[in-house]
Amino acid sequence: MVTSSARSVFMGPRLRRLRRDLGLTQADMAADLEISAPYVALLERNQRPVTADMLLRLARTYKIDLADLAGDGGADHTARMQSVLKEPMFADIDIPTLEVSDLAVSYPGMTEAFLRLYTAYREEQLALAERRAPDLAGAALLPGENFDANDPVAEVRRFLAARRNNFANLDDAAERLVHEPAGPAGFIERLRERHKLQVRYLPPNVMLGSVRRLDMHRRQLLLEDSLDTAGLNFQLAKQLAYLELEGEISAAVEDGKFSSKSAELLARRALAAYAAAALIMPYSVFAKAVETRRYDLEALARQFGTSFEQTAHRVTTLQRPGLEKVPFFLIRVDPAGNISKLLDGAGFPFAKHGGACPLWSVHDIFKTPRQIVTQWLELPDGQRFFSIARTVTAGGGAFGAIRVERAIAIGCAAEHAGQLIYTRDGQGPNADEPTPIGVACRVCHRPRCAARSAPPIGREILPDDFRTSSVPFGFSAD
Predict the structure, then answer these.
(1) What's the family (predicted)?
(2) Which of the two residues, 406 and 145, has the higher pLDDT score?
């Protein structure tokens, strides 16, 4: 509760935005609050503080929640700014923390403009890294053609990577709805009470290829009855996200400025899944749990009633400015090596085109299903990462139902590996003996790799008239 003795705050830009949103002039607001128009102008220019009494008057007059009006004092903007200013490009600029805080509090509009500009810069940097001349099939982009319009998946992946796969507004909105993990029963009750929806379970032959379908005419949410608990919980949460977090999801999609309808729809689906995970594993609770359990993915999955993949995916999203945890990357592949999910929050140089390195355990764990395999990785430039891989199953649930086996690998940079339970007491592979891998054969210049499938670009192949190399391709040293 705010009292008259509470600390006064400066919130000029926020007050100006409120007035404009309400369609009022300074004179109109002055009349409503029974103060003078010049005093409103002083408040908006931060030349006078907004007292607790004035906050209460604003809340009563315009029927606004006091917490929303007071805001967080710029804490969110401050944290986001501090996170961005850690980038190497700002390393030579001495920016005191107090100055960052003053900017975020006093000029939230300018702060938001800077953050949007930085996000746009990150997206362009990622786009530049992916830009190519003719592709492997020889098809070149036409002048002025947008490659992303032809590859909506790549566009959405870059959208997520530019934001480090974290959407704080969705996390906040989810925590307002669910403070603690609710489970299926809690979600079903909310759907019934808040949306007058009855949840029904139907067999696959009735669902006709759907696992979830909303029937607004009959006020029913229909779910396939072969879903396991984790799948059921996720579908319930996803439907709640579409119903109650539509505004936040749409705002995030609009921020992406996608070049095609397909990319926009894929982004919307990804953000709805993000929101569902945030409802099942609320950020604050989950972030505390990962530290307590030292990122033990199987233990976390048991605690939150989630699948291994859902848990691994959520771990990659814990990059909220000011509350960052270990940054992870994630990749999901099928036995043929096709990549169906790619999230990079740890700076791992994934190949933009073609397959990954066959020496990485993520391609070999189909031989040991459901077992976690850890591995230290070293790239040709000396970067080291720690990887955790395991198979996951989609589908099934009934005799004869199609099951799809995939492999998940989640990993982090070597400097963070000590925080993971998988490196405790020297368990697993030796960090001093990492597996030397490449990003992809075409860009890997390791000369003595027996697993190589193609020679590196730009290297001359040696003749084998008089000598056959022990590796698939012998090539010149320079």
Answers:
(1) Belongs to the short-chain fatty acyl-CoA assimilation regulator (ScfR) family.
(2) 406
